Amino acid sequence: MVDTYKPMDVFDSMTECTFILKPTTQQSQQQKQQPQKKSRAKSAAGRRSSMAAGREDNADHDISANGGFVPLLQGKEPVESMELRRRLFADMWTPLEHLLSETEKRVNNEGVTEVCDFVSASYTRVETTEKGQLASPFAEIATAVVFSGVNTGDHSNLFQSLQDQLYENSHYVVMLESQYCTSLPNMLKSMLEQVAAGLGIGTGGGSKGRAGGGTGVGFKGIPYDMSLLRIWWDEATPRKGSRIVVILQDFEGFGPLVVDDFIRIAANYCQDVPIVVVFGLATSYECVHQSLTKASISMLNVERFNLQRSKQCIDTVIRSVFVESASVLSFGAEAYKSLLDQFLLYSFSITGFVKKLKFAIMDFFYAQPLSVLSAMVSRLDQDGNCATFSIRECPIRLCQEQIELIRMQRSVQRFFDKKVEMDGDDGRKYTVKALVDDDFLQDSVLPEMLRHLVSYRQSYSLGISMVQAIQDTMPEAQHKPLRTLHYYGISQLFDEGTHWKTLSAAIRRMKVPEMEQLLTRFDSILNSSDSLDLQYVETSGTDIKSLLQQARELVANPDQTLKDEGYGEGKTLADAPSKRIRTRTDMDNRPFLLFDNSSTDQELRALDICCGYIESILRACLSPYQNVPLYEVFYYRHSFLLDTTFSAQPRAAVQTALGKSQYYIDCDCCNGSSAVGDDDRDDEADERIMPSMNDTSIAYRLHQECGRMINLYDWYSAFSSVVEQESTFMPKAPSQSEIQARFLRASEEMRFLGFIKSTQRKTDHVVRLTWGH
Amino acid sequence: MSGDAENHTPRRAVYTSSRVDMGLTLTATKRGRKTLLIDNSHNTPTRAGADIAEILKLSAAVDAEDKENSSEEAVSRLNLAGQSVYGFQKSVTRGRGRGRKASGSSSTRGSVVNKAARGRGRGRGRRGAGVSSSASGSRRKTMSSVPDGSRGDEYDEDEEEEDEEEDDDGRGVDNDAANDSQDDGENESLADGMLDLGEDAYGNNGPAYERYFQDLHTTRGSKTSDNTLSKLPPLSQAECRSILAKVPTKHKNELELLESLHRKQFSQWFFELACGFNLVFYGYGSKRRMINSLATRLSTKSPTVIVNGYFPTLNFKQTLERILSEVVGFGDTTGSVADLASLIHGYFESDTREVDNMYIVVHNIDGPCLRKHQAALAVLASSKNISLLASIDHIEAPLIWDSSMITRFNWAWHDLTTFDPYTVETSYENYGTESTEIGPRGVLHVLASLTENAKNVFRILAEYQIAESIMDDDAAGAQKKTGSKVPEMPYNGYFAACRDQFLVSSELTFRSQLTEFRDHKVIQSRHATDGTEFVHIPLDATTLGTILESMD
Lengths: 773, 552
Known about the structure:
The complex is a heterodimer.
Chain A: E1 18-21, H1 27-32, H2 38-58, H3 79-121, E2 126-128, E3 132-134, E4 141-147, H4 155-168, E5 172-176, H5 184-199, H6 226-236, E6 244-248, H7 256-269, E7 275-281, H8 286-291, H9 294-297, E8 300-306, H10 310-323, E9 330-331, H11 333-347, H12 350-367, E10 377-380, E11 386-391, H13 400-408, H14 410-423, H15 425-436, H16 438-472, H17 482-491, H18 498-508, H19 512-528, H20 535-539, H21 544-556, H22 558-565, H23 577-580, H24 584-589, H25 601-621, H26 631-634, E12 635-636, H27 639-646, H28 650-659, H29 682-685, H30 695-703, E13 709-711, H31 712-723, H32 736-753, E14 756-758, E15 765-768
Chain B: H1 2-8, H2 14-17, H3 26-47, H4 50-81, H5 88-101, H6 108-128, H7 134-143, H8 149-170, H9 173-183, H10 190-202, H11 208-217, H12 237-246, H13 252-263, H14 266-274, E1 278-282, H15 288-298, E2 304-308, H16 316-328, H17 337-349, E3 358-363, H18 374-381, E4 386-391, H19 403-409, E5 411-415, H20 440-448, H21 452-476, E6 489-490, H22 491-500, H23 507-519, E7 524-527, E8 533-536, H24 541-551
Parallel strand pairs in B: 1-4, 1-5, 2-3, 3-4
Antiparallel strand pairs in B: 6-8, 7-8
């Protein structure tokens, strides 16, 4: 056969599959070192020059300019604004990333320390009073079985911090990955190389280097054997108390036989060389027993550790990032749910969570023209510590379009409406000026609106802390983790949420001393941050501080206060407890009133009023973020983008493209309803196969009507009967060979996409592989 | 019976008729059955006789198949009648509804549906009379279906007569039902036909659910027809390509718009790459043009490696070696794929590197040769200074990654639906028509199953051809190509070479080796005018070189 195949372009070839393009600056240098093979040299050179040519053609604009940032607002955004967005992204993400990794490390640390202590304590001689020190009579390898959870993606961070801490305690660490340890020799090689690097053997230097990954120093021609290890260990005379810690990060990935053999060998040496083994498990502890033989398990001295802490970690992250607003960008209810679902329902992976968060922040600064406003609010300093909020002046003047965009936001319009409503004529003048005068909007109105935002965030954070304080008084089963509380906080109104109702019930159940404790707790929460700006809550008519003060007075001295205010008159202390139940709610929430004689009526009354105060405080603090001006900007909403970017459905995309092409191609010709057929309605229009459709689309739709086996010839016939009708809108009908070629191409594509596969069961048949739409 | 079928055949156009099996809609059948269930209760007691029940029992097992076939047929005819109606299932329903109302002459659809009903009656009759197989029945129908309405009507009458004859020989009461329905002419409704069948299916031999389980557990043979592609004229791959190159693109304007929308995202993608994400593109259509265009732009700043993952004989180790030698500048590297990958990873993590960052573009990261190298790719992708751009096409492709690999890849997914034909990606596939061709992948498959000796027999010929073609290049490089002839080896010389290497001991064994290759179309032979035999492998020298390399 002669290959008549003509390459489509420079990156297509029947013989080569790898092409390397170098930056233009290095081109000349590249020309000197021609590829090795003579037969290829000519074509390769030709290709290279044509590659360069192709590059010039395409270089109409440089996509890497400005780090990929482009002016928004149909290109009308000024360059300074774009530059600012770019800078802001870096300013915001770098400290945030630092904060996130620190949080993860801190949360992991506790468990890591436990493992370290275990390692240090291993192989110590048993102290006996009579004969001094006594070695353990059994040659067992000290083994830590570490359950690290299903979030395998985070494990490298976890084990990295374990490794770091072990180094600090002057142990030698060997990290083994299953992909480099497919057989026992590989495993020993990988291990010994890392030990050698750690002991400073072969490298010359005495300092312990860290051999990462699977490639260590590499000794040629040396048999990798454990006896070598013993010799090294004796020679190197390591510090007292050092251990060699062998970490099998992904235990499930190792072949059971390999580990089994390894344990048997290591058990022979563990008297001389203190080897400690750490198994990292993602599934369950049982895994060890299932994969290893009884004989080898009996050589292990196993201790279990649970290092799965991603939930605590995520709660801490959510507190600092969203509740205490370390980042100016917060998440709207829907986007937050998508973020949380990915975590809870998928893999508990912190990496995945951080990835989505990062992408959202990227999108915010890349695509939101008003993201420059975040320059006016700053929260984090460079080290990732939360500083106080401050409103600054915007470093650039906003352009006309940005100002207009601000005015167009719904929340801003509501802000103006409220102004007019509250301040009357002054408010009207203010509004008119803000709508007409751009400078006024930027210099006075914007800071005011942002102050609202900042103040709202603070009171929200306060509210969540209070909710947690109330939760602490409740039984464990009713506790909700912070991540859920935050979701309720942003998605539900205080009066509507079921959990909020549980909370109200809980405080209504309280007695005087408990209420006193709770109020003291609230006080300390309030006073913990000195620069609290409660302006937002106050504008809605709730003065948190004075309400709390009143509540405290009431509880402290219910008789006096109530009498002063005229309550409690005409009611005597002798009321029978049964009469205290006045309403159905009381019956539900405070059945104890029936039996409780310790509280006086006044006290009950006072408690009731207190509960009312607390509820109104919480209601004000947890008011929906949709009331805050400019929330459209600062509460991220594009959950769809996050879902498509990180939970993509490639199969659905292909099926949509083939089965419902109009989703991608908005054309008139394939819309069935415009064609013949009076009694065919819209939903059936989807089902119809039009000759104007893409060939593969036609083949796909035809194949959907088949059973498991598809006869190629019959498929072809059906295909041709559709394609023939092209003559209705094309100058001429396709010839038979054209139809055949097009059918072959379509069926080949279907095979390539994995919808069908060939079979030997019947001549010229294919098997259908997918079902449903 | 089959004689009749042949009599009819010449009148009809073959290609439109043999589509029986395309419209296999289970729902249609089910719906039919449902109707039966209802009507059954009224009619059965009056009509059913014991002998019929016996016959029906016999035919019960095959009945379902029959039913499906005929409903399919009804449907495939509908296609011809109402030109754009391909929603088979719905069409049937509609047809039934209309059949009741429409008068015979005006509604082609009605007539078609009626035929389906009658066809069922006939098929049953036959089986009842013990006439051979259901397959022949359906085939006959197939051959005799009609391209247009008018002829259909004419034909219908012929059929009716036959049907009656047939039915007479085995059927009693039930036959009346069939005849009745035929006599009603074009106005009869499908529902009646179905009712008729209902008696078949259930008769009075037991409740309906028994039939359900019978259907469920009966393993029926293939329901598809026996047509083969050999009915079509052969078409070589080259012809295919040249024809397809001329086919106009559908929806040209819309696709251009789609492409321009994708192109607008290039800057954003660059930003994502710069932020440490790796990109994976999915969606229908060849994505290599777009991604290559993106890659050429990226390559102005940093070295860019383009890997064609769809390539059937891709050697990933070689790719990594080339990266090491040409980008990183390490010469003479050895080790496994995992070692090389971690070497590259280590280089791009180190602070003292010369090349700041690198882009790797992998078309079809789900390609057959890359499937086992995903772990190595993930190692590369996990480096901050290596950015990976990949495309996937197989609909189940995401399954090749486990969760730790996904974390390492750090993908950001993007929909890049282009509707471009997969011309390049499928160009290595054998289109399955011209049987003298075998792609490099096919050769590798054949070789994989052979003994070491047989492989070496292949190697000798391959090396000979490579050497010859290089000599040809050298000698006649500038001259006109002599018909771009593949070098051939004389049979005797080939045998001698193999014997010298102790690969074969006698001509007999050599023959049998050769036959094996010839059967798989790996080696072809030709008799020259003087009678000497020449053998050759129908592949060019460079492809052979790649095959030899991957054999090691």
